[in-house]
Each structure stands twice: as C-alpha cells, then as structure tokens.
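Supplementary Note 2. Why include the ligand at all?

Several targets in our set were suspected to adopt different conformations when bound, so apo predictions alone were not considered sufficient. For every target with a known small-molecule partner we therefore ran a joint prediction. The input for protoporphyrin IX containing FE is given below.
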Amino acid sequence: MKDLPTISQFQVFKNRKTILKNPLPFHRANFEKYGDIFRVRVGFRKAVIFTRDATIIKHILQKQHKKYEKSELQTVDLAKYIGHGILTSNGEHWRKHRRMVQPAFHKKKLRGLLGIMKQAVDSELKRIEPGVTQDVFPLMGDLAFQVVAQALFSRYDIQQSMEELQDYTERNQKMLIREMRQPYLKWWFILSGKIKKHLDLAEQGKIKKHLDLAEQGRNILNSIIEERITSGEQKDDLLDMLLNATYEDGKHMPRRQLIDEVLILFTAGHETTANALSFALHLLAKHPDIQNKVLKEVENTDLDSDDIMQCLSELTYTKQCIEEALRLYPPAYVIDRTAISDDIVKGQSFTKGSLVLMSIYELHRSSAFWDAPEEFNPDRFDISLKRDYSNYYYPFGAGPRMCVGNNFAMYEMIITIAQIIKKFQISTDLKAVEVNPLISLKPMSVPVCFELR
Ligand code: HEM
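The joint prediction is reproduced in token form.
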C-alpha cells in the first residue's frame, strides 16, 4: 500500500463542489495523473482504493472473489430500506438465497415471461404522445417498474397498489440519496462509522418516516402474496417460482425473506434498466443512421408472434446498440468490495478491511481496450468480429455476484427499443446527456421527440 499514489483529504476538500455535482471528472483526472489505481485518504489510517485496472477488477470479482464481499453501502444503508435479499447480503445468507432465486431467471423460465413483459412494455408505450418532446427518463422508470411488477405478479388489477409501492420505493431511494448528499464522501462516512453523526436530527427523523414507508410497502407485498397463496392459483410467474423454491433441507422461504427478495427485484431491476433504456434512446435519437439500421432490423421481425424468444434472437443489431449504450453508460458505474482477508494482486497489497471501488465507467472508456472509446459504435459488438470483451466489459458485473437479472434486462430492453423504433422516429436537440452519478449512473433528463412513422 505504501507505494500507491494517494489523494489527500485536503485535495478532496478543495474539489468538493465539483465532486458533489459529478465525481466522474475527478476520478478521470486522478486516473490520468496517477495511473489505473490510487487511493484516497479518508481519515486517520483509513483509505478508499479506486481502480480501473482490468486485471485487478477481474481478480476481485471473479478469480479471488472469496476474499472480498459487498461493502456496507449495500449491506447496511440500502438494506435498512429494502431488507436482506440477495443484493444486500453476504456469506452463507447470500449463497443459500441466490441458489433459490437464480433458477427463476434461467432462459427457459424467462421464455414463459416474455409475453407478460411485452404486454407491459406495449401498455406503457401507449403513453408516448406523438409529435411532442418529452423526458423519457420518468417514462422508462414507470415502464421498468411495471415490467418487474407484471413479471412477478401477472396481475393487472393491482395497479393502485403497484403505484403506491413504486411511490414508496422511489421516495426511499431519494431519501437514501439525501443521506448520500455527498456521494463521494459517503465512503468516508462508512469507513469512519460516522454516518449518523453527519445527519442532523431532522434528517434522522425523515429516515424513520421512510422506514415506515418501507414497512407499508412490505404490507402491500404481503397482501398480494397472501392472496396468491389462498387462491391456490399457479401462474408460473416470478412469484410462483419464489414461492416454490426450497432450501437444501426442503423448507420454503419465510415470508419476511420472500418479501425482501421481491423488494430487491423491484429495486435492482427497475432503476438500472430505466437508466440504460434512457441513455440508449438518447444515443439512437442522436444517431439517425444507426437508428435506421435498427428500424430495418425490427421491420423484419414480428414481436407479436407466438415465439418472442426467436424474434429476440433475430434482433442482433438492436442488441448491439444496447450493449454499446451499457458500455458508455454502465448503470452500475462503480462496483464496491471490501477485502475480508489480506490479498496481493499485481504486486499491490489489499489488506483485510480495504474498501475497493472498481470504476466500470472508466474501464469501459479505456483507450487501452477500446478504439475511439467515447464514440457510440454498436458495430464493435458485432459477433462476427469474434472479439472477446469478457476481460474488460462488465455492465452486469462478473463472478458469482453477477446480475441475476441480466437476461431479463436484455430481453426487456430489446423489446422496448424495438417497439419504440418500429413506431416512432426519434430525435433530440440535446448535444450530450448530462449524467447524474448517484447510487447508479442516471441521466439528468433525456428530452426526445417522437414522430409517428
Ligand atoms: C440494465 C439493467 C441492469 C444492470 C446494468 C444491472 C447491473 C447489475 C450489476 C453490475 C450487479 C452486480 C453488482 C455487484 O457485483 O456488486 C447486479 C446485481 C443484481 N441485479 Fe442487476 N442489473 C440490471 C437489471 C436487473 C434486473 C432487471 C433484475 C431483476 C429483475 C436485477 C436483479 C439483480 C439482483 C437481484 C442482483 C444481486 C445479485 C447478487 O448479488 O447475487 N438486475 N446488477
């Protein structure tokens, strides 16, 4: 650790205003100045390590994943609102629940959910007003929430409950962001155990109120689950799969745990997808030539057919556009891990307790791996080029903690983009979308004009 370039607390303090607005340029400047790994001092004998080194990232996420676990940002701060499901837990608790949740997301199971998914997308897209410029970010937020809701419960008569749940979930996310008003410094607060001290009493009162909201959200889910059980209906949706999943001893998940897993699917599945779809729409609106290539492809595919999976497999260029949007704007722009034992990678020691922030955003824009990295060029993902990006492309993470919903998300995004481009020509006057890096990488706003084709 001695040799690592170190950013002092004073330097961070000096740059605090720009860091608070958007820490990405600060990260970039430090990587350019100090190389692919540096540390930031966060108090007496404490530091956060930032890296964009491909070998180190692969080592931590995949090769030696057992030496690392998720940090308290997720297992404590996020968990207090959404409980201890697979996103927010570590160790044996995580392992046994991942084993139960994962089969629900296998491709075979997802095939059965594609009809529900498409119906939810189509019904949300009816809200687009032709000839009007609108911010697609909130629209994509609603769409992604509805898709998860339908895939879980396959019910259209619980719209009001779902709206309430969406409202609680989003208000709680905003609260979490308020707690992280200083997103960059948040890591200091975690390390120094000072989170509570940095929040005034009024703020702590608000957290209490938001924890009550989380409880109301749980009550909504509990009633829906109860109704499903008493009805005795089998719907083959995500809820059925979670209800039927068993631990190694054959027992089912306790109700509290089931609700935690459902809440996690809403949280992990809706915001990330909404961000990615919004960025992708902006990029397509900015590149009419690329949009036309997507149009040609979607015109030759009929997503209304019975075999949606087959149609999706034909939409290869549309998929490439989404992969390229995820490269430029990875919703999980940093991935956090804490070392649980001492480790050495590339001559760099990571002592037990070290907090490492891996910048996926920087890795995805590194000129060491990508030609013209700042350019939107979906052709780089053309499979006929047979390029292997698996060592430096991680939109869904890697290793055992890799996103459980990655196929679900890809199918949902392909369906959404295909249905939009088939119906509308999209354009924008916005030069570049302004990013808003919070828990995930969000866009500020994404004005897009939709003209009927
Ligand atoms: C574009 C959309 C999405 C992106 C970019 C994304 C990205 C990620 C990433 C990077 C991770 C790993 C985080 C880490 O290693 O610390 C993750 C985990 C997870 N994601 Fe996604 N995700 C997306 C959509 C979804 C969807 C649709 C669902 C479910 C419906 C979902 C459920 C989860 C869950 C449950 C985890 C935790 C897995 C575990 O720790 O075992 N995600 N996601």
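The mean pLDDT is 90. Residues 293 and 317 are 8 Å apart (CA to CA). Comparable summaries for the other entries are listed in the accompanying table.
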